[in-house]
Design brief:
The complex is a heterotrimer of chains A (about 300), B (about 230) and C (about 475). Chain A is about 70% helix and about 5% strand. Chain A has one domain (about 1-125, about 135-285): ABC transporter involved in vitamin B12 uptake, BtuC (Orthogonal Bundle), CATH 1.10.3470. Chain A has 12 helices and 2 strands. Chain A is mainly α and about 300 residues long. Chain B has 2 domains: about 1-75 and about 155-235, 3-Layer(aba) Sandwich (Rossmann fold); about 85-150, no CATH class. Chain B is built from 10 helices and 10 strands. In chain B, helix 3 packs parallel to helix 6 (about 135-150). Chain C folds into 2 domains: about 40-185 and about 340-410, Response regulator (Rossmann fold), CATH 3.40.50; about 190-335 and about 450-479, Rossmann fold, CATH 3.40.50. Chains A and C meet through helix 1, helix 3, helix 4, strand 2 and helix 10 of A and helix 1, strand 8, helix 9 and helix 10 of C.
Chain lengths: ~300, ~230, ~475
């Protein structure tokens, strides 16, 4: 029994830590610019494949850490280009933004699919920084995942610090609260949005770097599952709320792992849980746990 | 300093401003008065770049600014304190002021401006850690003006600073506006309360249905029977 | 105006990317395009150039393009066609014919399955490309839908990938409609379950003799999909309270069906559940990415169980690189390996590796056998008539006939290819349809396990190796 509880707690924390990183950026972009970026899951997927492609290149043998640096830079640039080329010209229309980012996600998926390694599942375990595990109450705690959880918490804290203390962070908050007033302060809202989308892509990339070496690349379509679950997290926590996304991520994580461990035949439908959460929250509290009164 | 030449602005098909021309001299305090919906706020929004005029020219210090975006105009030295304050309600008083000083790169200037506005509004200094959303209406208006001053503007645009305030507080706000004027900041004030506005402004422009109907000094306008009747209630 | 211009630019960019990508893909993969398909020598590997469309016997292959299962079906058919064409094609009433092969993407390996894509693929093959025979299939849910296109048009279709029992039960229960359906690979789910049990029954017996009864619990982890249902029912029965062998009753302590879209964190939860249930042997029944996740966690956690079961991705030699070697010690079932299942197995293996550069998947060997089976029937009957001529000829490939006169029947690489005349299902059991149990061992080698004569007669097969247990497991079982 204690092993089952440990199992549920640890995996819930693990899942929550991953979704916290992914959902935080997703929610931020929505909060600041009202932009629903459906290619967010594709950033996560693409970072994984960027790492894989580089690891398969002989040049990077012995320089594995460099692949991480490059992958994160590339994904941040792709985030920036998404905003400049696709979102910015269309941002007056929410529907157009949704359609165009949806299209981009498909495009990235197809690009990966036609690449030489797009058709198989892959491990990028070379990038694991920690090996082995420690037994706690008869339950093996995998070091790599402890690293992930700690890093995720550190990144969340650093991010909160950045948003609340730095000038850029404060400008981001100003734009999210009143874009027009921010413009009157001399803040270039469009530039701030660009930075926001880049930061969110970087967070998705960091999530991929922390999680995928201990997990696996499950194919080019893997981004969609993460997008859907982040969506559930953000709806639950409240669109645009950072505390909400972090809290929502852990709630979704624990719910999934509870279903996996304690519900008979739960693993068959654990991934329906996020969808159920979306429906229930939209019915009883559309603004989410930490959201503002109305949805923009 | 600021010269507006035959500005037209439409919201869709509705005309908001029609052939507005206006000239503001350096260190002057001008007021635009007029009834609700006359286009006073639109005029300020067009100057500060929140709206692009459909026709006409705006020149600031000899430079055309009517095609620029708001954030660029702010950097040129025009600060717009918008209607209904538009504070960053989830941020502290100090952070609101910091945002106001966004274009200021020099730390010394920033400190000087901060001291200046805290001197102007000692109340804000007491509440600098408090969230802007929790301030009273008068304090919020003070913060809005203080925030607009933080960028050390050459031209300050004030939109309805007295809106929704008790007479006593209105008075205090207007005292401050006069003080700002004395410090040498050129100000364009938009105000519904004509009595107050005419008390402090050197030049007064009457805006009705998108057109400037009359203009002059307090003494000149006081003689006009229509002004007396409608705006001064004498 | 400026805004409008920018908006138009954005639309043009995304449209350009989309259309450009689409056109590129079209020219790369789907040329020569829509409309009536014109068959020519380029569809006939190994055939002389300039042959006309009516000289081609047209085979359509369904499968997921770009996924190992669908590619396997294509690669097997391609190789079979090439060998036949290079040998001069086949003669029907003194006219020479060549084998043409074409494929359509049924997208059936997609975890978020859309069955209409499979139907569309089958329709393109039948109506647009006018194929005379169909080969392929992998995901039962998809095949159940699109097999109807072939049945509607009275085209013989040989399933080379989906294990669910029901396909061939249809042939028995509604012969007039489903008589065109066959299965050359794999043996059906129930038989797979039976062969896993037979093997495990002997393996557990042997291990318990060495490690004094340490093996007491068994767990299963499987994709919650149609194809696993019959198999799981079988295993639940064999290791359940009413199992046929008393000593193996109630051994099943963990039973985990999972949704195919699972993440690695979910799989970690499941592996921990299996560990918590004290499993000594875990049976995966997995066709997709779950297998890699399972073996990754296995390598990290070194749990006290042995993995023995079905892991389709693990059948390919590339699995070792894909997992970074984490798949070591996994024992999984595959249709062929470098051993003399039949006299043609090893030549096929070598020819396949020479053609494609990797090992054949079960869909590859099954499709190779399927195409040869049909060509054999055409050759024997000198006819292309699906029913009754070809079907009735194919129905003579029974167990009894093959045992009596093996030389009269086509050679087959996956085992002697015998079919039940009433269900058109591959006959299971040595020496016909049987699986090999292979273990990943050090240095990316895959070794055929002795089955202790449970599934195959070990002494009759070449290259049988020895079982190697993970060191941590030996420690656990000996202390």
């Amino acid at each position: 029994m204690i092993v089952d509880i440990m199992n549920m707690l640890f995996n819930g924390t693990l899942t929550g830590a991953v979704y916290a990183l992914i959902a935080m950026g997703y929610s931020l972009v929505y909060g600041v610019g009202g932009i629903m970026n459906l290619s967010h899951g594709a950033y996560f997927m693409l970072t994984g494949y960027l790492l894989l492609w580089m690891l398969q290149t002989p040049f990077f043998i012995g320089l594995e850490w460099l692949t991480v640096v490059f992958a994160l830079i590339i994904i941040t640039v792709i985030g920036g280009l998404t905003f400049l080329l696709l979102v910015k010209p269309l941002q007056d229309s929410h529907v157009a933004v949704v359609i165009v980012t949806f299209g981009l996600a498909f495009l990235l998926e197809q690009v990966v699919l036609i690449s030489p390694s797009g058709t198989e599942v892959w491990s990028i375990g070379q990038l694991r920084l920690f090996q082995g595990y420690t037994m706690v109450f008869g339950y093996p705690i995998v070091h790599q995942y402890v690293f992930l959880i700690v890093m995720s918490i550190v990144i969340v804290l650093l991010f909160a610090l950045f948003i609340n203390k730095s000038k850029l962070g404060k400008s981001i908050r100003a734009v999210s609260q009143d874009r027009e007033a921010a413009g009157l302060m001399g803040i270039n809202a469009s530039r701030i949005l660009l930075y926001t989308v880049m930061i969110s892509a970087l967070l998705a990339g960091l999530a991929a770097f922390l999680y995928l070496p201990g997990a696996s690349l499950d194919g080019p379509s893997m981004g969609w599952g993460y997008l859907l679950n982040s969506f559930a997290v953000v709806i639950l926590g409240g669109m645009g709320s950072l505390i909400g996304s972090v809290a929502g991520a852990f709630i979704v994580g624990y719910t999934i792992s509870f279903t996996n461990v304690f519900v008979p035949y739960g693993p068959s439908w654990a991934h329906l849980v996020p969808i159920i959460i979306i429906i229930v929250i939209l019915l009883i509290r559309p603004q989410g746990l930490f959201g503002k009164k109305e949805l923009r | 300093m600021l010269e507006i030449k035959k500005i037209y602005h439409y919201y869709g098909k509705a005309k908001a401003l029609e052939e507005i021309s206006l000239k503001i001299e350096e260190k002057a305090l001008d007021a635009v008065i007029g009834p609700n919906g006359a286009g006073k706020s639109t005029l300020l929004r067009v100057i500060s770049g929140l709206e692009e005029p459909d026709r006409g020219k705006i020149e600031f210090l000899g430079e055309r600014i009517d095609k620029l975006k708001a954030h660029k105009i702010t950097k040129k030295g025009i600060s717009h304190c918008p209607e209904r304050r538009r504070l960053f309600f989830d941020m502290s008083v100090a952070d609101n002021l910091k945002m106001g000083a966004y274009p200021v790169k020099n730390k010394e200037v920033y400190k000087a401006m901060k001291n200046f506005v805290y001197e102007l509004f000692p109340r804000l200094n007491e509440r600098r850690k408090q969230r802007a959303g929790t301030l009273s209406g008068g304090e919020q208006q003070m913060l809005a003006i203080a925030r607009a001053l933080m960028s050390k503007p050459k031209l300050l645009l004030l939109d309805e600073p007295s809106l929704g305030l008790a007479p006593k507080i209105k008075k205090r706000i207007f005292d401050v506006i006069e003080k700002i004027k004395q410090e040498g900041t050129t100000t364009l004030l938009v105000e519904q309360d004509a009595v107050l506005a005419m008390d402090i402004a050197e030049n007064i422009h009457l805006l009705e249905e998108g057109k400037i109907e009359m203009r002059g000094t307090k003494k000149e306008l006081e003689k006009e029977p229509r002004i007396k009747q409608v705006y001064l209630g004498i | 105006m400026e805004k409008l211009a920018k908006r138009i630019i954005a639309i043009v960019i995304i449209a350009g990317l989309g259309v450009g990508g689409g056109l590129g893909a079209w020219f790369l993969f789907l040329a020569p395009g829509a409309g009536e398909y014109s068959w020519s020598s380029k569809d006939c590997p190994g055939a002389p150039s300039g042959i006309s469309s009516d000289q081609i016997i047209k085979f359509g292959i369904t499968g997921d393009v770009g996924e190992i299962t669908g590619d396997g079906a294509w690669e097997g058919c391609y190789l079979a066609a090439k060998e036949i064409n290079e040998a001069g094609g086949i003669k029907i009433n003194d006219t020479t014919y060549y084998i043409g092969v074409t494929r359509e993407d049924s997208d059936e390996a997609n975890p978020n399955l859309v069955t209409s894509r499979g139907i569309a693929a089958a329709e393109r093959l039948v109506y647009n490309k006018k194929v005379q025979f169909g080969i392929g299939g992998f995901r039962s849910e998809a095949l159940l839908a699109y097999q109807e296109v072939f049945m509607d048009n009275e085209i013989i279709f040989i399933n080379t990938g989906a294990a669910t029992d029901v396909f061939c039960e249809n042939v028995r229960s509604w012969y007039t409609r489903y008589k065109y359906f066959w299965r050359s690979m794999p043996i059906n789910s129930s038989s797979l379950g039976e062969q896993i049990f037979n093997y495990l029954f002997r393996l557990i017996y042997v291990l318990n003799a060495t490690y004094s009864g340490e093996i007491a619990n068994v767990g299963i982890i499987y994709e919650d999909l149609t194809w696993t249902e019959d198999l799981v029912t079988g295993i639940e029965y064999y290791f359940g309270p009413y199992g046929p062998l008393p000593a193996y009753r109630n051994m099943l302590t963990a039973n985990i069906p999972y949704d195919v879209t699972l993440t690695a964190a979910d799989m970690l939860t499941h592996v921990n559940t299996l560990m918590a249930a004290d499993c000594d042997i875990v049976i995966p029944i997995i066709s997709a990415q779950g297998g890699l996740m399972l073996m990754q966690h296995y390598a990290t956690l070194q749990p006290n169980f042995l993995v023995v079961g079905i892991d389709v991705q693990s059948q390919l030699d590339t699995f070792w690189t894909q997992t970074n070697g984490d798949c070591i010690y996994e024992i999984q079932m595959q249709s062929i390996h470098v051993t003399n299942k039949t006299p043609t197995t090893i030549p096929f293996w070598n020819a396949f590796r020479a053609e494609w550069g990797h090992d054949p998947l079960y869909t590859a060997s099954g499709s190779y056998d399927a195409l040869n089976f049909i060509v054999w029937a055409i050759n024997e009957t000198q006819s292309l008539q699906a029913y009754p001529t070809l079907t009735q000829k194919m129905e003579t490939a029974t167990k009894a006939n093959i045992l009596a006169n093996p030389e009269l029947f086509p050679s087959s690489v996956g085992g002697l290819g015998a079919y039940w005349p009433t269900t058109h299902d591959l006959v299971a059991g040595y020496p016909f349809g049987f699986t090999l149990f292979c273990q990943w061992q050090a240095n990316a080698t895959k070794v055929i396990m002795p089955s202790y004569n449970s599934v195959y007669i070990d002494s009759q097969l070449s290259n049988i190796g020895t079982l190697i247990l993970p060191p941590w497991l030996i420690t656990d079982w000996t202390t």
